[in-house]
Design goal:
The complex is a heterodimer of chains A (145) and B (116). Chain A has 145 residues and is mainly α. Chain A has six helices and no strands. Chain B is elongated and about 60 Å long. The mean pLDDT of chain B is 88. The chains are: A mainly alpha (145), B alpha+beta (116).
Chain lengths: 145, 116
């Protein structure tokens, strides 16, 4: 229960690694000290408030640091999203080119015979990486909210 | 008496109260909260970790408070002990001197506002 609470607080903190580590250490000490004075974990949690409230109060005191990190995270998320769009774009462009190259003969209309490849087309890698980056960007964006 | 005006008033004086408590002796988080509640929990509201620790971080960042980690004499668990820096003592002296003037000034004003 204590561990869950600390984990939840950690998720909501927007601080440097060093500050986050310190805040979580202090929180652990708060639980330990309370236990030494005969307080239950439940009563400590009732006093601390929700993890969201606790982390919010801490974030508020480090406002400039929090703001900087949020801006940096937003920029990083945007960069990942752009990379995803670029990868999918390259894939689509390559596919268009490929279908024209794969047509056999000089007929006025395309035949239904295409040259098949035995190995995995490296162009598909762009699609896979693009989708992966889009998922990462989406997860980062949700965390930012 | 827990409306916003009172909350704001308490917020403004919390830094001074904490510096004052830490100036008395080197102390740790739980002890600070217990002392605060013993001195005036029923007046300024019972202190909670979520209120006190963030202010302690700010005071430390401002160089008014310093910390050291050491085993507690009672059971050996590691605790973070807070004490004032030279800058912290200076700031506290300034704040207490201001508080004296402020108190007198406000008291005089309030007395003048009393109906005859």
């Amino acid at each position: 229960m204590k561990e869950d609470y600390i984990k939840q607080v950690q998720k909501e903190l927007y601080l440097t690694r060093a500050h986050t580590k310190e805040v979580l250490r202090d929180l652990d000490e708060a639980f330990e000290s309370a236990a030494q004075h005969g307080e239950s974990v439940e009563s400590v949690i009732a006093r601390l408030g929700t993890p969201h409230e606790y982390a919010g109060a801490v974030n508020e005191q480090f406002a400039s640091e929090v703001l900087k990190r949020r801006v940096r995270r937003k920029a990083f998320t945007l960069l990942i999203a752009l990379a995803a769009v670029l990868c999918v774009g390259i894939f689509m462009y390559a596919q268009q080119q490929r279908s024209a190259d794969g047509v056999i003969g000089q007929a006025d209309a395309a035949t239904q015979i295409f040259v098949g490849g035995g190995t995995v087309d490296p162009v598909w890698l762009f699609l896979a990486v693009g989708i992966l980056l889009a998922i990462v960007a989406l997860l980062l964006w949700r965390k930012l909210k | 008496m827990q409306h916003n005006y009172v909350q704001q008033f308490k917020k403004g004086s919390l830094d001074m109260i904490l510096l004052c408590l830490i100036a008395k002796k080197e102390t740790y988080g739980y002890e600070i909260i217990t002392e605060l509640n013993r001195w005036g929990g029923e007046v300024w509201g019972y202190a909670r970790e979520g209120t006190i620790y963030p202010v302690l971080y700010r005071l430390q960042e401002a160089g008014l408070v310093q910390t050291r980690k050491a085993p507690a004499p009672a059971n050996g668990g590691i605790k973070k002990y807070y004490s004032l820096t030279a800058k912290g003592r200076e700031t506290l002296a300034d704040l207490l001197s201001f508080w004296e003037q402020y108190k007198k000034c406000i008291d005089r004003l309030i007395q003048s506002c009393q109906p005859d």
